[in-house]
Design brief:
The complex is a heterodimer of chains A (about 280) and B (about 425).
Chain A lengths: L6 H28 L4 H4 L14 H9 L2 H32 L5 H10 L9 H10 L6 H25 L3 H9 L4 H12 L1 H17 L2 H5 L8 H6 L9 H21 L1 H8 L6
Helix pairs in contact in A: 1-13, 3-13, 4-7, 4-10, 7-10, 8-9, 10-14
Chain B lengths: L1 H20 L3 E8 L2 H8 L1 H7 L3 E8 L1 H13 L7 E4 L3 H7 L20 H6 L1 E2 L2 E2 L2 E13 H7 L9 H11 L7 E4 L9 H12 L15 H17 L9 H9 L3 E7 L3 H4 L11 E4 L13 E7 L7 H12 L1 H11 L10 H5 L1 H4 L4 H9 L24 H16 L5 H18 L5
Helix pairs in contact in B: 9-10, 18-19
Classes of the chains: A mainly alpha (about 280), B alpha/beta (about 425).
Chain lengths: ~280, ~425
């Protein structure tokens, strides 16, 4: 029997949810509002939420000073490319770990996760040298590989968790009906785990889009994505907060829109099996 | 038929030759995001008109990220950059390690003797110029003349620390949101330690003695840190230990600082009525002294250099010559006015009567001339650098010491404890680096 809630409780929980959502979103909102202020109003004290002198000048200047479409295209290629390549490797890996686990599967999963525990700067020079020697420096393919490897443990872990929710008997039945391994993964497992795969894909696109250490370190001009675009407007000596906010808004806008339209899929995937 | 072949061959050769004549060299310039550098990018039409065979690609990064990327590239001989924007701290270290191309052979029109001696000295190693200054800066005092007048104090053009302390006390009105003094408190070798090391020079303190022994246990350092903490605690803004260049500049533009001591490069913003309603009330003075012959001002220059690994050194030199010679200063003046010309690099700029009219021109020059990177403090030191010691270990060590001193300012530890910790950290670092046994 479904539990019933009083109207008062519903109002309270809704208000609390809005409050928490606003708290989380406030820095982004502040950034967007700052991007329409003059540099003087951006640093006004006390801070003004809404400025009297709204302007689009920051956007115009950021656009004229940088080749935004090139940075944007690089971000699209790198984030989608690294995620698709990661999925292609992680789906079979997670399948084997979930349905035919060996003695060391748990250790392997832990080891994969442990690679995420090291600070990235610890391998800066080896990565730098590898990229130079292999001719991958400042190339999109190089960044696709780097980000794919960086996010692979997360992709495998997420998929492993989703696959574990699928009863092995269904796959077994398909196998008894004569399905090959390929058919089993593509036609049986994948459709059943689609919400999980979709949310993994979306989350990793977002992670790759926002990655700033390697994308700034391993690029100069040709493959630099939007993270490098933002970094070019940051300055410890100079009051350029409004322009920096405009650049940041332009960089996050595409991923924010993607997240907005796919939020249903994202939430469904992230809560997949959570109540089992 | 033969004629046709010959004609085709001739045409092919002509196309190939014209292609070779039009061959374009692309250079990658790594730079920081500041007003002068952005302005240069906007004036590139002039460069392309003069050098149509060179294409420039820009990599603009925040200075700490730039430093990390360029260091990784140079130390691994990567060759990703042809021109790098480099600070006065790195030039002597990288020059000595053979990481930079010498700029001794720039054309005669470059006029190397026109460079300000203090700036040139900081960019020269063993007689070789390794970087060409794009803009130079020192630090000075800026203050609100109206507040000083109201408080009945005067700040001389060349004040002492006593003058500053008295004026800061008199100008403070915390109820009205006016703080007598704003100084850098944020931890970092380029933030609070740039200021504190300069202040220490004027107090006769030094980082190391002639044998590289750290000196934080000296009475001079105790006087420096005690006065610094007292000044900011009594007359500084709340949360001073979090304030760096940008935060204090913001407070000054809003008229909330009676006195501020920071980079001369901020003079343009402070006197710009579009940025500050107190623009016509700003006074300037040299950094203070203690009567010991050294003032508390630093010396810094953002300069352009060529990594030894660049494969387009000639084109890079052509670019550096264009961006840092006298003609470039005249170009900026003609397009954007004298107030926007990159300051602090050339004698001829300060001899120009138009530039001399600017309210901060003379004070900037005097401040730069008052700094001597080869003889920065009262007692002899084994290092080069005014607000830093040009050794590779300095940035890491000074950041550690900066965190300790910032904690002292925040009241988390006493001055004595902070100095003892700084001394222990410095002895440890200098021992493990092999400077002392």
């Amino acid at each position: 029997m479904a539990r019933t809630y009083s109207t008062r409780r519903k109002i309270l929980t809704t208000a609390a949810a809005w409050g928490v959502a606003l708290l989380i979103f406030f820095p982004v909102l502040w950034m967007i509002l700052t991007s329409f202020k003059t540099e003087a109003s951006a640093v006004a004290s006390p801070p003004q939420l809404f400025s009297a002198d709204w302007t689009f000048e920051n956007y115009a200047e950021v656009w004229s000073r940088s080749d935004y479409p090139r940075f944007f295209w690089n971000s699209v290629v790198i984030s989608i490319g690294s995620t698709l390549l990661g999925l292609a490797i992680a789906i079979p890996a997670a399948w084997s770990m979930a349905f035919v686990p060996g003695k060391r599967t748990k250790d392997l999963l832990m080891w994969m996760l442990s690679t995420k525990m090291m600070p990235a700067v610890g391998v800066l020079i080896p990565m730098y040298l590898l990229f130079q020697r292999l001719g991958l420096f400042d190339t999109k393919i190089g960044l696709v590989l780097a980000l794919m490897l960086m996010n692979l443990p997360i992709i495998v872990w997420m998929l492993y968790t989703y696959f574990k929710e699928i009863p092995g008997e269904i796959l077994e039945a398909a196998r008894m009906d004569g399905a090959s391994l390929w058919n089993e993964i593509v036609h049986v497992l994948t459709p059943m785990a689609l919400p999980g795969i979709a949310s993994t894909l979306l989350l990793n696109v977002i992670l790759a889009w926002n990655e700033a250490f390697w994308t700034i370190t391993l690029t100069t001009t040709k493959a630099a994505p939007l993270s490098a675009f933002i970094a070019s407007f940051s300055a410890p000596q100079g009051l350029f907060y409004a322009k920096l906010s405009a650049a940041s808004t332009m960089a996050i806008a595409p991923i924010l829109i993607l997240g907005w339209f796919s939020q249903k899929q994202l939430v469904r995937g992230l809560t997949f099996g959570a109540v089992k | 038929m033969k004629m046709t072949h010959r004609a085709l061959l001739g045409a092919s050769v002509a196309v190939c030759l014209s292609g070779a004549a039009m061959a374009e060299t692309t250079i990658t310039v790594a730079t920081v995001n500041n007003g002068d550098m952005v302005r240069m990018q906007g004036l590139m039409d002039d460069f392309y008109a003069k050098h149509p065979d060179i294409k420039v690609e820009w990599v603009t990064l925040e200075e700490n990220v730039l430093r990390q990327n360029v260091t990784a590239d140079i130390s691994t001989n990567g060759g990703q950059y042809d021109v790098i924007t480099i600070g006065t701290y790195e030039v002597p270290i990288w020059g000595k390690q053979g990481w930079l191309e010498s700029l001794n052979d720039l054309p005669a029109e470059y006029d190397v003797d026109d460079l300000l001696p203090a700036i040139r000295g900081g960019l020269t190693v063993d007689g070789n110029l390794y970087a060409s200054p794009f803009y130079g800066e020192s630090s000075f005092v800026n203050y609100r003349k109206d507040l000083a007048e109201k408080a009945g104090v005067t700040i001389p053009d060349a004040p002492t620390w006593d003058d500053i302390k008295k004026a800061a006390a008199a100008m403070t009105d915390k109820d009205a949101g006016i703080y007598g003094i704003c100084l850098r408190g944020k931890a970092g070798w380029g933030e609070n330690m740039a200021f504190l090391t300069s202040m220490a020079n004027s107090y006769g303190a030094r980082w190391f003695d002639e044998n590289w022994n750290p000196q934080f246990d000296s009475p001079e350092w105790k006087a420096v840190l005690t006065d610094y903490v007292d000044l900011l605690t009594n007359y500084g803004p709340p949360g001073a230990s979090n304030n760096g260049y940008n935060e204090n500049l913001t407070l000054s533009l809003q008229g909330k600082c009676g006195i501020r001591m920071d980079a001369t490069v901020s003079a343009g913003a402070l006197t710009d009525p579009k940025q500050s309603e107190f623009a016509d009330k700003v006074g300037f003075a040299l950094a203070p002294d203690m009567g010991l012959g050294k003032r508390a001002n630093w010396l810094w220059a953002w300069s352009l250099a060529i990594p030894a690994s660049s494969d387009a050194k000639d084109a890079a030199k052509t670019f550096i010559d264009w961006a840092t010679n006298k003609d470039y200063l005249a170009l900026v003046a003609s397009k954007e006015g004298w107030g926007n010309v990159p300051p602090g690099t050339r004698k001829s700029l300060y001899e120009n009567p138009e530039y001399a009219k600017l309210p901060f021109a003379k004070m900037t020059l005097d401040s730069i001339n008052a700094a001597d990177p080869t003889n920065p403090t009262v007692k002899p030191v084994p290092y080069v650098g005014v607000q830093f010691a040009a050794i590779p270990e300095f940035a890491g060590l000074a950041t550690t010491v900066g965190e300790i001193f910032s904690a002292a300012l925040a009241g988390q530890k006493t001055v004595d404890d902070a100095l003892a910790e700084a001394q222990a950290a410095a002895v440890d670092e200098m021992t493990s680096a092999g400077y002392i046994k």
